[in-house]
Design brief:
- By secondary structure, the protein is an alpha+beta fold.
- It has one domain.
- Strands 1-2 form a two-stranded antiparallel ribbon. A two-stranded antiparallel sheet has the order 3-4.
- Helix 1 crosses helix 2.
- The termini are close together.
Length: 86
């Protein structure tokens, strides 16, 4: 079994740990904020701090979601418990 999944985002390859692969998908800001247990306004403030700009659409694209996770790191509480890492 592979330890990471490679995903192509904004012209670069990103290694996504297999235990967090289930998180990659289109989401709203509210869903992402809930994964970090913070309000949406705090998520927006943290993203601004790391110079991550997102589109104004209600649902974020997969590329934008991955950018958020790369800036803020993977939310540990959302780690998939059955993912085996060899």
């Amino acid at each position: 079994m592979r330890n990471t999944i490679t995903y192509h985002v904004h012209g670069r390859n990103v290694e996504i740990p297999v235990e967090f692969a289930h998180l990659v998908g289109m989401k709203t800001r509210k869903e992402i904020a809930a994964e970090y247990d913070i309000p949406v306004w705090m998520l927006n403030r943290r993203l601004k701090k790391y110079n991550v700009t997102l589109c104004r659409h209600r649902v974020l694209s997969i590329e934008e979601v991955v950018e958020v996770y790369l800036a803020l790191s993977w939310p540990f509480k959302m780690r998939h418990p059955t993912a085996q890492v060899n």
